[in-house]
Design brief:
This protein is of the alpha/beta class. It is built from 29 helices and twelve strands.
């Protein structure tokens, strides 16, 4: 080994319970502890890591980390001594460095897993280059420092990361193919163990910035990028795809395929198949493991409608997040119509059924909601589509995740939910919804430290959409007792999305349930320092949030009247139909409102709202659940009605016993005396 270790180009990796980001010189433990080390020490750690257990001599380390300059023996000895101290300190014995007498040093990992944290470098712009298309799978040679070494240079548990960018298309090509082609490749790559494939949500978000491959890789934390384009060709379409090394911007492979207009699935299958074949042939066999069977293929005639439905659903979700309700409703009805058209051709089309599940669960599309019988609640109506999808393909990861999340969220079938979500992640480690739901489930079960692992994976898989799912990481850190880490992460989210009242409310609830009036005052100052909202609707939401925070601060200082009135007015406005506001359905808003009433010394009102929230199956603020780190105040938790609520449902009582057992077994942080008695 003689090449210089360039920290800016060395990909993040895991070593036992540590996640290491060389470009930032940062080491983060799974429990949230963080350390920044000297550049030279990080270079030595990387050199030992890439050696993958082989012995490196002192001369090897000098060439790799000191550019071959003449240095004293003490310099190398100091670096090794500091790394050993790190291993015994923040490393919790995750690794050790052995000295082989008169030969050199080697790094030995003592345990490892697959969890990582996200990286969000600065934004830049770059004009997209055109694809260079060649005619074969091995059109580009690997080279001595190519993709093979890039894969093989990672220790076990350190996953290579791939981002599949949306395809370029001509105006005469159906717009949905941008999504469909990228989705097929992402889905195929995700079924390879040892890869981390980023979510479509993030790649589509960042595509509009027109960054270079290197900048895309840095922003997304991806080492490899897939680009593609689909253009008209005679009576059909020609598709092209290339795999690019983000750090060097070198093309690793390129391929092209032409099909007729009525055989679009063959095009997406061919493009994804070539990329998958190439990646597999360049990876170490040890990184590959058996996965679930490939997805069930439906009638190809349904494909255009299915792809259009998926694209319309994604746009609906984005528009809802931006509070553009009018356009969102139009897109939701379009998603419904296209999904129904696909199912009219192929009644077992799994992806179309899952589009209808997403619409039904969220209450989107008036046309779909009109089909719901009056005696069936919305949750059961939505679950019907998931059950049909699993009947068609029992191994579909998205359907498994949907059913598992329904069990977690609405039916409180904790063990079955965990089994389903685990199976979904096994089938597709990049299944974002499964990761998020599993992280939330583990927090609910009072296993927040375990949940943090999956929450970090969510941040890595979807780095561009922090507020949609990324909030689960600080929420779980707070529930695990890592308060400083949680606040730091929330502050980072607020800096990235300064108009997000959702994040403001998360911070607000964190401080309120800690009874910290001074911190609430500081949050108001922090919000006032953010960029001024440029939309009147955003400005109104921010001002309402600030007003609420000020009322809570006053309540903690013995003046609760204003906060009580705010909560009373908000509850009065709810229509009981679980509509969504700021990302929260009414059941979740009721749970949070019960906490506000509790801290505003409105004990009976707090218990009444909590009863309504539990009836709606909301356990939203997991840190406040019995045996948690931020419980309801004593006036509420010692009340007989409060204790009865947690015993009113067999599954809820079972959950509380599980939370108590996990606290007693050291799987969580909390306090025994704060919990209600379980009968």
């Amino acid at each position: 080994m003689s090449s210089l270790i360039e920290l800016s180009q060395y990909p993040p990796f895991r070593c036992g319970s540590l996640f290491i980001t060389p470009s930032l010189r940062r080491i983060v433990h799974d429990d949230g502890r963080e350390l920044i080390i000297e550049p030279r020490i990080m270079q030595v750690l990387c050199a030992l890591h890439i050696a993958n257990g082989t012995i490196l001599s002192r001369a090897d380390l000098i060439r790799s980390c000191w550019e071959g300059r003449t240095v004293s023996k003490d310099a190398v000895h100091r670096a090794i001594s500091l790394l050993r101290a790190l291993a015994n300190g923040i490393g919790d014995d995750s690794f050790r460095i052995d000295t082989v007498s008169k030969v050199g040093y080697r790094l030995v990992e003592l345990h490892s897993d697959d969890v990582s944290a996200g990286i969000i470098p600065p934004q830049q712009t770059w004009p997209r280059r055109r694809l260079i298309v060649t005619g074969g799978i091995f059109a580009a040679a690997l080279g001595g420092a190519g993709l093979y070494q890039w894969f093989h240079g990672h220790a076990s548990g350190s996953y290579p990361t791939i981002a599949v960018m949306p395809f370029e298309t001509a105006t005469t090509v159906p717009d949905y193919l941008k999504h469909a082609a990228a989705f097929e490749i992402r889905q195929s790559l995700s079924r390879i163990a040892g890869l981390r494939v980023l979510s479509d949500a993030s790649t589509f978000s960042v595509a509009r910035l027109r960054l270079s491959p290197r900048q895309l890789g840095q922003r997304l934390g991806a080492g490899l990028l897939v680009f593609g384009r689909i253009m008209p060709s005679g009576t059909g379409f020609q598709g092209s795809v290339e795999l690019v090394d983000a750090a060097t911007q070198a093309q690793r492979v390129a391929f092209t395929q032409t099909v007729s207009t009525d055989d679009i699935p063959a095009l997406t299958d061919a493009l994804s198949g070539r990329i998958v074949e190439y990646v597999i042939t360049t990876m170490a066999p040890s990184l590959l493991s058996s996965k679930l069977p490939p997805p069930v293929r439906g009638d190809p005639r349904a494909f255009p409608h299915m792809a259009a439905a998926e694209q319309a659903f994604l746009l609906t979700r984005a528009l809802m997040a931006d509070n553009n309700m009018g356009e969102a409703n139009v897109r939701a009805d379009l998603a419904y119509a296209q999904a129904k058209a696909a199912l009219a051709i192929d009644g077992s089309n799994v992806r179309s059924l899952l589009v209808l599940w997403g619409l039904a669960r969220n209450g989107w599309s008036a046309r779909l909601q009109s089909e719901r019988p009056p005696d069936i609640d919305r949750t059961s109506f939505a679950l019907n589509f998931v059950q049909r999808a699993l009947a068609a393909d029992p191994n579909d990861p998205a359907a498994l995740a949907a059913l598992g999340d329904s069990y977690r969220r609405y039916q409180w079938r904790w063990h079955e939910a965990e089994a389903l979500l685990s199976r979904a992640i096994q089938a597709d480690p990049g299944q974002l919804e499964a990761r998020w739901a599993y992280a939330t489930l583990l927090g609910t079960l009072n296993r927040a430290p375990e949940g943090i692992a999956h929450a970090r994976e969510v941040a890595l898989l979807d780095p561009e959409n922090a507020t949609r799912r990324g909030y689960i990481l600080p929420r779980l850190n707070f529930a695990a007792g890592n308060r400083a880490q949680a606040l730091h992460q929330y502050d980072g989210l607020l800096s990235r999305t300064p108009l997000s009242t959702f994040v403001m409310r998360e911070l607000y609830m964190t401080y309120l349930t800690a009874g910290n009036a001074a911190a609430l005052d500081g949050l108001i100052v922090r919000i006032r320092q953010l960029p001024k909202p440029y939309l009147s609707a955003a400005r109104e939401r921010v001002e309402r949030t600030v007003n609420r925070i000020a009322a809570a601060s006053a309540a903690l200082r013995g003046r609760p009247q204003h906060l009580r009135q705010i909560v009373h007015d908000e509850v009065a406005e709810m229509d009981g139909d679980q509509r969504t506001e700021e990302g929260r359905v009414d059941g979740d808003r009721l749970f949070l409102a019960s906490l506000e009433y509790a801290w505003a010394e409105e004990t009976d009102g707090a218990i009444d709202l909590l009863a309504r929230a539990l009836a709606a199956r909301s356990l939203n603020w997991i840190a406040a659940l019995p045996y948690g780190v931020a419980p309801f105040p004593p006036s509420v938790r010692n009340h007989a009605r409060f204790i009865m609520l947690w015993n009113s449902d067999e599954r809820l009582a079972g959950l509380i016993k599980t939370r108590q057992a996990n606290l007693a077994n050291g799987k969580a942080r909390g306090s025994m005396p704060i919990a209600p008695k379980i009968q």
